[in-house]
TrEMBL record:
It comes from marine sediment metagenome. InterPro entries: PAP2/HPO (IPR000326), PAP2/HPO_sf (IPR036938). Residues 129-242 form the Phosphatidic acid phosphatase type 2/haloperoxidase domain. SMART domains: acidPPc. It holds the Pfam family PAP2. This is Phosphatidic acid phosphatase type 2/haloperoxidase domain-containing protein.
Length: 277
């Protein structure tokens, strides 16, 4: 019940933030559903086609993500072991939240709830958010399923080490890369964060979205690099589909240019990610 209340609270917060959108519409709800579902499918297709249009800057960003993930990979044994060893120091309700919210079924329950609220109230901004959430989760979710099979990385709990790969192995023990829980939860968080201007609110939402990914590292289901790459997929997918939806809906997020930038920083004995928004 507490978890259901959490879902409803998130939906309510988004609804309140979107209330300045006009509810006066001559469209029927059925027309809205047809239009929105079409945009969901087209948004997924748009996100998959984007690499075909990348220029030098986008390829450089992709290279930075791959390079950064590679550096995290080199330290996976130590970092993942450290995180697992500190698992019991984390409050149980936080660990339970991470496992609960990152599951696909609960993820789609939350995203569908946001869209349903927008449809019932005929709130275009909330509908658009629901479309962004569902299409982003679908696009990123399908991609991670393909990558899991192609890469075939052994999970930490398999006790085979970070360097063990067996592509197309059907066993779940070889579906570590990337983390599905991290990907779905952070996709939602990143999309919802677009509703808000306040950087502290955004940071709080991103933190909540990161917990499911970290919880999977706590449980030995994933390596740290699995989580890092999943976050990168989430951000790229949401940004891509959001740009597509800008052309399909009048309501824009905060009516401002998308200026979010993610930069990897490296130095002697340290590595970090800087987020500017």
């Amino acid at each position: 019940m507490k978890k259901l209340i959490t879902f409803l609270a998130i939906t309510l917060c988004i609804s309140l933030n979107a209330q300045n959108s006009s509810n006066d519409s001559t469209e029927t709800r059925w027309d809205m559903v047809k239009y929105d579902v079409g945009n969901m499918f087209k948004g997924v297709g748009y996100s998959y086609a984007r690499p075909l249009h990348w220029q030098g800057k986008q390829w450089a960003q992709f290279g930075a993500v791959v390079g950064g993930t590679g550096l995290v990979y080199l330290a996976d044994d130590n970092t993942s072991r450290f995180i697992r060893n500190n698992r019991e120091g984390i409050p149980k309700f936080i660990r339970d939240y991470g496992e609960f919210y990152g599951s696909p079924a609960n993820n789609y329950l939350a995203t569908s709830g946001v869209y349903a609220a927008g449809l019932i109230t005929k709130n275009e901004k909330l509908r658009r958010t629901g479309v962004l959430l569902i299409s982003s989760a679908t696009s990123a979710g399908l991609l991670q399923q393909v990558l899991k099979s192609l890469v075939g990385r052994a999970r930490p709990l398999a006790n085979l080490g970070k360097d063990t790969f067996d592509p197309f192995n059907s066993s779940r023990n070889f579906h570590s890369f990337p983390s599905g829980h991290a990907l779905l939860a952070f996709t939602n968080a990143y999309a919802i964060g677009k509703q808000f201007k306040n950087p502290w609110v955004k940071a709080g939402i991103y933190t909540l979205g990161a917990i499911p990914g970290v919880s999977r590292v706590w449980d030995g289901q994933h390596w740290l690099s699995d989580m890092v790459f999943a976050f990168a997929i989430s951000i790229a997918t949401v940004e891509s589909i959001d740009r597509y939806l800008d052309k399909k809906y009048d309501e824009k997020y905060n009516n401002q240019q998308k200026m979010v930038s993610w930069n990897l920083n490296f130095g002697p004995g340290q590595m970090g990610v800087t987020v500017n928004f």
